Amino acid sequence: MKRWRALVFVPLVFLGFAGFYTLFIAEDLYTSRATLSLASGQVQAQLEQRIQLQQEGPLPFEAVRAVAFAEEIIRGVWEELRKEGLLPPRWQDAGTLRGFERMASDFGIKEQASRRSNDTVRQALIVEMSVQAPSPKLASRAANAWVERVLVAVNQVPYQKFDSSLAHLQESLDEAEKNYQEAQARWLEVSRRSTLASDRLELDQLIQERVRLDQALSSLRADLAATRARLESYGAALQSQKNRLSANAASIELVLMNRSFEQAQKSLQQETERLRRSYEQVASELEAFRKRERIPELQVELDRLVARLGEIATQQSALATQIAQKRAELREKEALLLREPRLIEVLREVVADPLVATAVGQDAWPSLESLRLKSQELSPVYTSLFSQVAALKAELSGLESAERALREERARTQSRVEVIRTQLAAQMREKERITLEHAARKAAYESVKARFEQLYRLSPQPFSFEVSNPEYLRLRSAITDAEAERAAQESRMQQMESRLTWINERIVALRNRVAQAQIEQDNAEKALGLSKDSYLALLQKKTDLQIQAAASQSTAQVLVRAYPVYQKTSPNRLLILTAALMVGFLVGLIYVFIAEAVQVPGPSGKGVYGA
């Protein structure tokens, strides 16, 4: 029976210890709860150039729990309470255990409910967050601080998935912008030192001149062949006349022959004088043309205008890039502006006014103490975004005006370039005509002059065997004229052939220069176009990502804030005492069974301890 007394004694001992713990050791705790709701959000996605809305479910409960018990969240709540001087002893540092770790043991979170749509996408998640603290106000304060930080962190989750993409895209965008600027600089340098336009103009003019020279040379060769044939026929006829004449001509015939010779000299002298006057006239025309010639000035002006066209093209390209950037930024700001409410409701207590507060303190209007006024004000965020949008529109308008001005200047410069090219081509054709005519008349004059000097040096002795045959004299005069004409034609043909040779060499050189310049310009333009397309594509992709990030709606909100609850939740004294009583009874019962099992029977059949 002594062993069975343990069934009473042991439970009483456990009950005593439990009572002592609940009365003197255990700390009273109060629980405060806040409710957080996470709804499914809509995210804008650009698919095939169309803006579409995609349904995106809320975060799962495990993710919310991981965010809620993250070290930065718990530490932030602990630091906030520490700064306010609200940390109780149970949440302060104790040895190696840090205070926020001890505080986290009093925080709890559980899933209340979730709702799913027909397409198995969860539409809402309701989470209850609880905090145990030694006082109701501290519990509600800690719970509200905790739920606010969790709310901010959860709402930032949709944006965090864009951070890595935006960071990587920004690196690619910086590299693309650098390549674009380098391509612009190379293209500008090529445009500045390129003589492609002037070389093409000169090449076209030389080709046209070569065609004209070929035609003139063909005609001149035909004329020269006809002159040579005429000389041969004259020579044959003259030889025939010589064969008929007698070697002993009469003296009267010699006199007549000498007179004819003098007439031929006089006629050749007149022809020489006529060619000299013609040559001097062309020389005066050439001198007058050189005085009024503007080919160097026009060429300099043309080069300047071509360089200006290159600068205008570079500025237009830079303006197009800036306009694209500003338009992308404007679209982004307008998207943010559409999402931001214009007016916000402001709830103010009437006693916020010092005069009203003084009156209420003097019991003048006691009914105003709990009165609140609701008013609407312009959202400062909306005002700031509106100002930014207006500034961007003004800047974009200025850039577009500058682009229009550049287009107009380019049109004017292009028309001026065409006028100068026309004037330059006309003057070059006139110069070519006068130069060729001057060279031809000079050659004819020098040839006839040489023939006249040769004839003047002759004496009448070679004609002593000749007679004053009219046909013979006509043939001699015709041969003299034909030889002068042949000399002039040969001289002109040599000049034209030398000019044609130089033109062909110049055309080959210009074609090589034009081909190299065209290849260089094409490569520069191709590199510029590729770098520009790559830069604009990356810029558009960045804008789309920013719009998508801005359009990701906040999915979390506080449904119910935590309030002080003045009902103790710990310790549960009745539960502790009942548990202590049951544990004591079980321990006593186990003790009795063990004692009965190990009992050694005595000689009289009783145990060692007796009955």
Automatic annotation (TrEMBL):
The chain crosses the membrane at residues 574-594. It comes from the Bacteria. InterPro entries: Bact_polysacc_biosynth/exp. Keywords: Coiled coil, Membrane, Transmembrane, Transmembrane helix. PANTHER family: CAPSULAR EXOPOLYSACCHARIDE FAMILY, TYROSINE-PROTEIN KINASE. This is Chromosome partition protein Smc. Residues 159-223, 258-292, 472-527 form a coiled coil. Gene3D superfamilies: 1.10.287.1490.
